[in-house]
Amino acid sequence: MPRFFWFLRRRFRMPVAEPGDQYSIWVGLIYIFNLIVGTGALTLPAAFARAGWGLSTISLVFLAFLSFMNATYVIETMACANAVFKWKRLQTIKRDSIQNHEGDSEDDLQDERPHHSNSIGDLEEPLVCGESIPSRYYSLDRRVELGEMANLFLNHTGRNMFYITLCVYLYGDLSIYSAAVAKSVMDVVCSTVPSNYTNSSDWDSLPCFNTSTSAPGVYTRLDCYHTALLTFFSVMGPFVFFNVQKTKYLQLFTSGMRWLAFAIMITMAIHLLIGSGPQGKPPSFDVTGLPTLFGACVYSFMCHHSLPGLISPIRGKARLGTHLALDYSLITIFYLLLAFTGAFAFANLNDLYTLNFVPTDNENVFLEIVEYFLALFPVFTLSTSFPIIAITLRNNLQSMFLDTSRVESYNFVLRKLLFPVVAVVPPLLLTYFLEDISMLIRFTGSYAGTGIQYLIPTFLVLSARRHCAGLLGLGVVNKYKSPFSNIAWAVFVLLWSFMCIILVSVNMFEKS
């Protein structure tokens, strides 16, 4: 083999994950399934009941389809980013190689060029590709996060909008997590609210330990909520100053706890339906509940910001899109089962579904243990995720305002103190004065969630297609191209997103 191509192949070979770091397509789909089906699913039954079972079913299926479409956009953009990195690396190595082999004549190099694509597995010239020859430039071997894609394909304004949207979404995530934990602790610690108490807006002002008295100065449910919230932040907040990584065993533990809780909730709801009949009577259509449902669905199908890290280690990605469609179909069926059973089994649904299973004075010890487990379920699972999200937010804030290539040159306050505090304090203040989880979910899902799940993937894929077409040529085929590659799909997603934001804004303005 000529020295030029031997050198080129040795230098350009892309780093791949170690065999132990890779997993099969089915394991990858399980990870994606667990990523999507998280705490957002706990908000679906209440939103489902408010919007009506008919409208909610149609909306849930439609939003699942849109989420899948934009997931394929993320995959296509990731393949485009891999192609750009490979192309740039190839050009650099060619330039270095030519400089190192100045004695080689131009004619020798021209004679070697036709053997290029056959000699080197990972490389090929753009011009040798056609419509029927998939390009090796496009791959999913290298993990490219959304932030890297934004830096690669978006302009300065687009990158700033990306980081702002991501940070707002992460702030909303932290607020929802902390409020859910504090409310769960409040409902476990405090006495059960009487079943004949119908004024839900005043529940937090009730005495915590004795609902039959209302003397001034007693310890109220709101006081308990504030105590639980401050305790949660004092325990979990300091982790944002360090680098905490999720371990494999922690992921397995939290996944097992989550699936056990979901299985118990569905089983208990079905048992109530069989034993007592439908207690809930949700309407078929109620458009006033659509904004809350939209926010809950967007939040429940969110995976796009973490998708690259789960896709890159998968072995055998040839039919990734088909398997991902199967994953989304199973998730949609699961959500419908959870929402339908909850909407019809309970006359009144809490914003957080686990709060419908608060412990009661039950003679059955096993049933009481199950109720305590469900009531404290958000505390266990969300507490393990809170530090990771807080650290992610801290890192993105640093990327927005600091030059990450010379972080060590900044003073100690900027490097170690300012951004951890800015990441944790705003969610604490927000949830201290606003414990309404449905409001938090509606804002996070409808605004920041729409940006992360719909707008950013669409703008990224449009910019990536244009960038790669100019760099590699129109004849280079991206085998990971989205099946929704027609420009009409992208226009539809953008119009739908802007319309939903306007409708949600009008609804929130009217209610304020």
From TrEMBL:
Keyword entries, A-Z: Glycoprotein, Membrane, Transmembrane, Transmembrane helix
Ranges that cross the membrane: 23-48, 60-85, 161-180, 225-244, 256-275, 287-307, 328-349, 369-393, 413-434, 489-509
Annotated region described as Disordered, given as residue ranges: 99-123
The keyword Cell wall biogenesis/degradation appears for this protein: no
Segment forming the signal sequence: none
Pfam families from the UniProt entry: Aa_trans
Compartments (UniProt record): Membrane
InterPro entries per UniProt: AA_transpt_TM
Keyword Glycoprotein: yes
Domain of life: Eukaryota
Record's GO cellular component terms: membrane
Membrane topology: Multi-pass membrane protein
Residues in Amino acid transporter transmembrane domain copies: 23-77, 149-499
Family per record: Belongs to the TMEM104 family.
Name of this chain's protein: (diamondback moth) hypothetical protein
Organism: Plutella xylostella (Diamondback moth)
